[in-house]
Each structure stands twice: as structure tokens, then as C-alpha cells.
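Extended Data, panel c. Modelled sequence:
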Amino acid sequence: MRTCRRYSISAIAVLVIAGSMHLLIAAQDGSIILTGRELSRVVPPGFYFQGLTAPTQMRNSAAARFGGNRYVIAGLVDTSGYAADVRAKYEGFLITDSAITINGSELGTGAYGFGFNNDGKLNILDLAGNEILSVATTKDSQMKRPRPLMMTKSGNGIRLYSGKDYAVVEAK
């Protein structure tokens, strides 16, 4: 009787562990929005773009981790030192340490400038200020308290918001 009970308990434990493995695997593939110390640890204090370094607005920074150690980091910067034409297209940085898609368009590993414009577009710029990607954004009319920059989970990816406008970022 005791042997049967011991085998039953062992069998149940094996089934529970085996049944939980898919949850562990799914958690590694999903995205996690970073906060607090973890966010402060990955967001740079400043960012170089078109010949100048501008300080990061830490309150308007966001980061997400995909899986174990793949990151997407975005932040607004103080653009007051830039010329008016640069300020019109550049508002912050986007750093990714692995390939991603933004609204389905591919973007490789790297550091980029970005800007949301009034025409409903998110423009990604190389460090010299050249546009390398432009995607249409979606307006989230349900957003209660829009912020200048934020990230939220969205399926297997994240939404990168500027106010109520967003683009979906997913790991590739």
C-alpha cells in the first residue's frame, strides 16, 4: 500500500511538472515591461544623435525584456540643443539588442533615433538622422491617461506609445 501511494505521489508530481513546462517556455518567449531599478539599470543617461549628446528624460523612458535577456529600450531626450529641423523629426532613442519588427516591418539590432509625427507615422532614424523606417501608427481612443512615452504588453510583443498613438514591437 505504501509503495503504491509513493508511486502515485511521484507520478502526480511528474505530471504537474511536465504540464507546467509549457508555461515556463511561454514566459521566456513573452515580453515583460521593466519598472523601477530594473528600468533604471538599462536606460542610458544620455544618447548621441547627429553630432550631439542629449540627456535622457528618465520619467519618459520605457524598456521591455523579451525572453531571458533581449531588450528593447526607448526614451525621450532633451532636444533643446538641436536645430529646429532636427527637433521636428527626432524626439528620442530606440535601442534593440536583437532584431525586431515594428508593425510588421523589420528592424535590425542597433541604436536609433525616432519621432512620432502628426501624420500618424513613427519614423526610425539612423544616428546620422537619415530615415530608415516609417510605419503607420494606431490611435488608441480607449487610452485614459496618455503619457509622452510608454510601453504596454500586447500579445507576444509590446505597444510603444506616444500619447494615444502606438506601434506594435515584437521580437523576431
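The first helix runs from residue 2 to 29. This feature is highlighted in the accompanying rendering.
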